[in-house]
Amino acid sequence: MTRRADVRVTVDSGSCIAGGQCEMLEPEVFVVDDIEGVASVIGAATLPRDRAEIVVDRCPGRAVRILVDATRTLDADEPTAGE
Length: 83
Ligand code: SF4
Known about the structure:
alpha+beta, globular, Alpha-Beta Plaits, binds iron/sulfur cluster
């Protein structure tokens, strides 16, 4: 079930350096393909915005983005709504 404050996230595969920080933090949302050397989001997984922001902050490749809507992602240094 998706809670109201949950958000979707994406991974920019061109920026991902496959260190696995996202998978370590949120193993039900991210998976790293060790052969391809890139992380991805598992299905349509969502997570609470505060936890998504932690992953964004800790991604060394700055590859994780919060999906604002179907056409736009939140840049890593862009303030979230209400800030
Ligand atoms: S934390 Fe960022 S750079 Fe590291 S595997 Fe995940 S998406 Fe890729």
